Structures are given as structure tokens and as C-alpha cells.
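In response to the reviewer comment on reproducibility (Comment 2.3), we provide here a single inverse folding case reported in full, input and output, so that an independent group could reproduce the run without further information from us. The C-alpha cells appear first.
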């Protein structure tokens, strides 16, 4: 069957997470976790679902960008796309008028991610496999032709499939960010840590960067809660300049964080290198990637030894195609990949990529773990399964991107019931 694509729709779906400060950090104090949600229809009735993640306002701009790309997708068949996926990736990212808006960064790249995520979902569904298994099988059949530009640093040899059974049995290790968003009270932090420890979590991330004294208090509290042997990470979401990052994190070194995440501007590669060098004697690494535009930036981060943990993002980079390139480069440079997840749908998507990374690329769990955030999974038709702080490999065909239609309708902005109600409340207050 050819699976000719007959239609592409995109919707602005938002969740009012800011009301309870879920997802808050030093730079994003009121995030409403949102998605530009794409559905691809085909002539045989099979659909592909994809999304990219945003924080509320501005999702409508990503929706416009997806609409601008739709004409490049509709009318093509799945076979046509996947038989030259590299060409299709270039088509989406190199349109001679659209590329001026990027290239391969910002809104247009988020839109590319949403569209390509839907295409990969469609492909995995057409093959009747979860996406991670489709990728693993592609490697065993030597069908990897999805990356460009970075061949100079890509490792060609890919390890075998010996780790698959282990993953199916035990799952992929995860850490939680859910206990310590910046807007949570100390009481809330304590309660959430207690619950998480009971559920088997051993690795925790805490938001920092707004106020040093607050950070010291919160890091002390969380370290007391989790004990000396569990793992702590800290995340500043780009709040500092380079010198400030070094002095601030040095003050937090007594709490033994494994990494400082996004200490400064995500574009400052040499700044990250300087921070990495200064913090290495304290045993603190630098992690970044959730706002790293593309594989070319990652290549330079790796070449400059500017990060010690690569945080791929399933919706920031150009979907699976570009994430594969980054996984291979990280392997080449022997830097562990610890994906960014959370948001809405990011856990659902990125679990496929990290499973592939373990089974076919890295074959190692040393200093490797995938982020987990305990929000909004109930809106997906195949939500993540976490067991004993591990991601259990998804079994359903596809890329786990499909949302419940009832959830999409309720949260569609601005006409969904959730937003109409919020608007009415606001009008009554005025
Ligand atoms: C605004 C988002 O919640 C951001 O804080 C997420 C993040 O940095 C992370 O999960 O890491
Ligand atoms: Mg982060």
C-alpha cells in the first residue's frame, strides 16, 4: 500500500499548568504546557500523529509555520518520503523562501519537528511497530540514510541488538523533575520527595537560578530528603552569564550535584566550555540541549568539550532524523545522552529514541538516564509506562504521539471548554 497523504491538520492545544506552577523555572515562571498537534491523513485511512512542544503563547505562530509546510507533505506517499527521507528532510528545511526564517532553528524548526514526528508515527504504524523497534530493525537491515552535514564525525559502526531483551525486562532508567519546580513551596517539595522515594525514584532534579539563598535552602532540603547516595541535578534554564554561573554553582557544590543544566545562553558554546572547565574540579558536569537548535550546534558543543551530558529533545530538533545524528555524534565523542523530557508528550516521544540509543548505539547505562515528569500523560492514547523509576518499552505501533480526541477538543485554544471557562472566570473578576 502506498499510503498517499491526503490531508494535514494542526491544532493549538494548551494545558493551564501555570495555575499550579507545574513546570516553572528561573526563566519560565508561568508555563502553560502546550503543543502544536499535527494529524496526517492518508488515502487508506491510516493516520500519523505528531507534535511539538511550546509554553502557551506563541503556539499559534508554530501552528502557522506548520500550515506553511503542509503543502510540501500533502500529495506525497509514505513510500516516496521514506525511500528518500534525507531528501524529504531537506525539502522541509530548505524551502528557498521559508528557510530565511531559520534555517533549522526557531519556529520553523519546531514546525518541522511536529510534521516529521507525524510522518515517523505514520511510518511506524504502517509497519505495525513501536518507533524504537522500527529504528532497531532499520539498523539490523542497514537502512540508515537519514542524516546530513555531520558525516565527518559520525561513527559508522553500530553495535548489535544484544541489549534489547534487557530493556524489555528492566526498562530504561529515569530521573524525576516533578518534585522541585521553582514555584513549589518547601512543604510541597518535601511531600513530593517523600512520595517519589516511596515509588522507587533515586535521581532528582531541582530548579535553581532565581535567588542564591533560596537555592541553598532548597538544595539543602532536597539533599536531606534524598540522602547522600541518591543523585541530584540542578537546572538554571539559562539564567546566568558565564562568570555568574561559575560562582553561583560553586556555592551549590556542597550539595554534590551531578550536573548544572543550561547554566547560560544556549547559544554560547564557548561559555559552556569555560563553565565546564571551571566546574570539573568540583565534580560537576554541564548538561544542555533542550534549546539547542540543531545538530550543527551539538557538533560544536561536542567538539569544544562544552558539555558533559547531551540532552536531546524530540520536538526541538528535526524529529528522529536529526536526533539520530546527535545520538551518533555523542557516541563518537563518548558523551552520555540524557534526554530532555516532560512538557506535554516529550516523555512519550523521547523514550523511543533513548531505547534505540541503548540498543543500537551506546550499549551503556553509565551516567545515562532519561528525564521524567509526571504530568499530562493521561491525555495520550499510549501513555508512558514507568515501573520502579524506569521507562518500560512501548509496545503499541507508532511514536506514542496520539492524543485523546476528547482531550484535544477540551484544551484547544481558545475555543476548548477549559479555555472558555478560564476566559469567563477572568471576565467575572474584572
Ligand atoms: C519550562 C519547562 O518546564 C522547563 O523548565 C523544563 C526543563 O528545563 C526541564 O525539564 O529540564
Ligand atoms: Mg531543563
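Designed residues, in position order:
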Amino acid at each position: 500500500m502506498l499510503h498517499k497523504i491526503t490531508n494535514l491538520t494542526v491544532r493549538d492545544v494548551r494545558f493551564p499548568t501555570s495555575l499550579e506552577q507545574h513546570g516553572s523555572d528561573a526563566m519560565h515562571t508561568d508555563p502553560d504546557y502546550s503543543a502544536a498537534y499535527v494529524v496526517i491523513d492518508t488515502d487508506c485511512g491510516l493516520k500519523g500523529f505528531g507534535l511539538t512542544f511550546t509554553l502557551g503563547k506563541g503556539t499559534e505562530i508554530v501552528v502557522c509555520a506548520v500550515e506553511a509546510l503542509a503543502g510540501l507533505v500533502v500529495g506525497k506517499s509514505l513510500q516516496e518520503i521514506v525511500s528518500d527521507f534525507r531528501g524529504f528532510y531537506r525539502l522541509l528545511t530548505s524551502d528557498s523562501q521559508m528557510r530565511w526564517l531559520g534555517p533549522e532553528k526557531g519556529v520553523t524548526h519546531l514546525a518541522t519537528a511536529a510534521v516529521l514526528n507525524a510522518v515517523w508515527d505514520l511510518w511506524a504504524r504502517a509497519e505495525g511497530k513501536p518507533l524504537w523497534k522500527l529504528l532497531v530493525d532499520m539498523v539490523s537491515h542497514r537502512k540508515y540514510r537519514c542524516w546530513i552535514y555531520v558525516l565527518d564525525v559520525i561513527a559508522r559502526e553500530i553495535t548489535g541488538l544484544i541489549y534489547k531483551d534487557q530493556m524489555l525486562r528492566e526498562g530504561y532508567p529515569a530521573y524525576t523533575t516533578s518534585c522541585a519546580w521553582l514555584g513549589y513551596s518547601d512543604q510541597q517539595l518535601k511531600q513530593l520527595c517523600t512520595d517519589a522515594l516511596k515509588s522507587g525514584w533515586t535521581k532528582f532534579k531541582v530548579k535553581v537560578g532565581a535567588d542564591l539563598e533560596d537555592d541553598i535552602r532548597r538544595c539543602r532540603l532536597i539533599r536531606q530528603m534524598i540522602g547522600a547516595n541518591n543523585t541530584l541535578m540542578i537546572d538554571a534554564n539559562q539564567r546566568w552569564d558565564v562568570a555568574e554561573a561559575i560562582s553561583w554553582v560553586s556555592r551549590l557544590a556542597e550539595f554534590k550535584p551531578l550536573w548544572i543544566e543550561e547554566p547560560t545562553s544556549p547559544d554560547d558554546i564557548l561559555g559552556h566550555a569555560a563553565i565546564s572547565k571551571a566546574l570539573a574540579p568540583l565534580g560537576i558536569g554541564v548538561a544542555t540541549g533542550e534549546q539547542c537548535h540543531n545538530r550543527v550546534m551539538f557538533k560544536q558543543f561536542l567538539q569544544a568539550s562544552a558539555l558533559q551530558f547531551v540532552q536531546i529533545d524530540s520536538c526541538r530538533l528535526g524529529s528522529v532524523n536529526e536526533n539520530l545524528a546527535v545520538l551518533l555524534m555523542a557516541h563518537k565523542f563518548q558523551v552520555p545522552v540524557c534526554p530532555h523530557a516532560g512538557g506535554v508528550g516529550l516523555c512519550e516521544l523521547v523514550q523511543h529514541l533513548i531505547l534505540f540509543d541503548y540498543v543500537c548505539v551506546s550499549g551503556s547505562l553509565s551516567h545515562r538516564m532519561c528525564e521524567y515528569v509526571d504530568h499530562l500523560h493521561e491525555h495520550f492514547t499510549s501513555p508512558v509506562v514507568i515501573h520502579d523509576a524506569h521507562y518500560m518499552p512501548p509496545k503499541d505501533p507508532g511514536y506514542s504521539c496520539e492524543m485523546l480526541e476528547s482531550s484535544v477538543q477540551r484544551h484547544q485554544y481558545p475555543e476548548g471548554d477549559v479555555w472558555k471557562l478560564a476566559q469567563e472566570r477572568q471576565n467575572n473578576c474584572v
